[in-house]
Amino acid sequence: MSELKPLEGKVMLVTGAGGGIGRAIAMEAARAGAMVAINDIGASLDGQRESSTAAKEVVAEIKKLGGRAIANGDDVSDPEGAKAMVRQATEAFGRLDAVVNNAGILRDQFFHKMTYENFDAVVKVHLYGTFNVSRAAADVMREQGSGSLIHMTSTSGLVGNLAQANYSAAKLGVAALSKSMALDLQRWNIRSNCIAPFAWSRMTSSIKVDSPEQQERVDRMKEMKPEKIAPMALYLATDAAADTTGQIFAVRNNEIFLMSQPRPVRSVHRSEGWETATVANHAVPALKGSYVPLDVSADAFCWDPV
To answer: Can you say whether the dihedral through the CA atoms of 181, 227, 103, 112 is positive or negative?
Structure first.
């Protein structure tokens, strides 16, 4: 275990921690001195249950390091499952200082082919899952008078991406939900922040490759390791981040970004009010130069990661 332990004595719950980003965060949290509750239902990429061993394997790895961890197999999309994992963490370790809402699934389809079932399933895990676990944790943290809620959003929602209407809607919803939590819970010293991670994981491995350019992009993504996300997540769980709340960060390899949040860009005023014709002839021409382009995430992050 590392000599420098900024999370010594703290308890962290990480959802979807059986692999990828969640596992990397959980392992680094343990090295930083935290007691960690490892949640993972052992599901396939599209959310179908496969095995319950993933969480237990991470727990075993942490214990080999001399750390303390427990495994949980509840479903974040089930409110009772969320309550159960929070209860298990607090009963095992006596408190709950940080939650990392990382669990997720993908069911990518172009919008005109998107089924209700695939839209619902993705929103349930990402958005409802974030609500369920955070809501259960908030009761414990309010009683303590402190806590840190850390949520995984995505540039698919913040910027945009093709064939991910379900995932994009859920992830942008997570960002808005996080801001509301930050506002509502600040009186109890509970903070809420988002991270949009760039990393090669089981989820990103599902990206379809149908051109040399796409293959090149995927090859670059393979170089971005899940472990690169952990330092930002761990920082947000430490006391040093006490004045950081309501923010959205992105982490891409060795780069950390503070992401913008929607604010007025430009305005036009007409003292006598507007009609359809004056909107067309005056308002829109004045505003059009500030339109947001129809970008995807790769357009906004168009340079190679460093």
So the answer is: positive
Mean of pLDDT values over 129-154: 98
- Classify domain 11-258 by CATH architecture: 3-Layer(aba) Sandwich (3.40)
pLDDT at 1 over 50: no
| Average pLDDT taken over every residue of the chain | 93
- 167 in catalytic set: yes
User: Which H/E stretch holds residue 151?
Assistant: strand 147-152
- Which ranges in the chain belong to alpha helices (H)? 20-31, 53-64, 79-93, 116-123, 129-144, 155-158, 165-185, 212-222, 230-237, 276-278, 284-287, 297-300
What is the domain partition of the chain in residue ranges? 11-258
Confidence of residue 2 (pLDDT cuts 50, 70, 90): very low
Q: What share of the chain is helix, strand, coil (3-state, %, to 5)?
A: 50, 15, 40
Any residues with CB less than 8 A from the CB of 145 and at least 6 apart, and which? 188, 189
194-248 pLDDT, tens digit each: 999 998 755 555 555 566 766 666 666 677 899 999 999 999 999 999 999 999 9
DSSP states of 24-35 as a string?
A: HHHHHHHHTT-E
Q: Determine the Cα–Cα distance for residues 228 and 31; give it in Å rounded to an integer.
A: 15
Catalytic residue selected from 116, 128, 167, 291: 167
In 3-state terms, what secondary structure has residue 78? coil
Place of tokens 């801001």: 179
Q: What is the pLDDT of residue 48?
A: 66
